[in-house]
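[09:14] KT: can someone run the structure on this one? pasting the chain below
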Amino acid sequence: MRGLRFDRLIASSALAFAAIGCFAKDNAPARQVSQDEAYEWLVAGEILERIKAPTFANREFSILDYGAREGVEGGAGDAIAKAIKACNEAGGGKVVIPSGTFHTGPIHLLSNVNLHLEEGAVVKFTTDTTKYLPAVYTRWEGVECYNYSPLIYAFEQRNIAVTGKGTFDGQAGDDHWWSWKGREEWGWKKGMPHQKDGRDRLFAQGEAGVPVEERVYGEGDYLRPSFVQPYRCKNILIEGVTFINSPMWELNPVLCENLTVRGVTVVSHGPNNDGCNPESCKDVLIEDCHFDTGDDCIAIKSGRNNDGRRVNVPSENIIVRNCKMLEGHGGVVIGSEISGGVRNVFVENCEMSSPNLDRALRIKTNSIRGGLIENIFVRDVEVGLVKDSVIKINFVYEEGDAGDFAPVVRNMVVRRLISRDSKYALYFKGYEHTPITDVHLIDCQFEGVEKPSVLQHVRGLQFDNVQMNTGAKTDIWGNPL
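[09:31] RB: done, structure tokens below
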């Protein structure tokens, strides 16, 4: 058996069966897997054993009982806050937003509260940016600071949830939030304000080690907030709801533990509209979700440059399964704000395809970002059409080899990935002094590939029953028809 660099290895046969059997697609019988594959996925079984969605007391607090008015600008914000506070003080339960359209400012969750949207409920967030102040403790593109409140925010809370069949509408667009990116495609015109000066100042403060309490941003800095950001929270559930029209990143849990994102739909095509970005998080399950985004569908992160190394918390023990990715820069991505590292990521039974999806699997970093990225396991992924590459590992992202923190990528295993149409199958660029190491592709099939793979400074690359442009008709698992 090949040696793996896990923190702990599992010897339990019960967990071995869990790692094999409970991951079967569409409740199909578990396939026979090799000893190596079973061994690789043992840790996934242990992670699943630990991840438990929070439960809540059987109490309901309707926002209507606290004065919410449907269809009125600002008519629900105070009522939602009062209901959340009452629910928390009573020991927890469910805050119910009924069917109808309600307008609010930012929502701040408290411990033991499940914010629940009934079917037909639409919550629209104000575009008045002053309502997102005073500034809160946050991370912005991987650097800690005080900035506009995320639309849904929680700080150092326990046992929180956002659930239901309703829709959260951030109301971002070319006229609100998006133009701050500073690009004409998002509504910006010459002379309009944009984020560059504020972004540059924040990054300079992060590099210089300026205390976080002195990094205060808000009106005039144009740093767009994330949609949902639990910060330093534990025991979190986000389930069933739909998110549209986000100012920036959609779901961005930071420094959180025991997180479940299940059955969520994200449709938002603005700038930096990543779908789900767990950042420096531990024990995360993302399953049965639908992503149609303006940036990466899922991007695993752990802080940017010196500020990420200062916090020094990796993202680890992350399972992504049964998700569908449509438009975006990447399907499942690691980086680029990855300075704290990432380990133990398991991806399976996902579908990725769109003429506007650039890549399926992607790792992006450089020697300024750095980061140790290891133990990445992928199996049973179907890729239809991607514009660029099916699997991309890139050490020359943005600044390239311009720093002193050479990234490390090692121990990545991809099994039974099938792709139909792409420019490249593989696009790997490491450094001569720090190559990409130990990537193993097993039982994979790449069809419709236009150009030869790019493989620069890669060591220990292995192919085991990998086919390319065979022209053979197969089912989604590569079996001949």
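[09:33] KT: thanks! The two ends are 33 Å apart (CA to CA).
[09:34] RB: yep, looked fine to me
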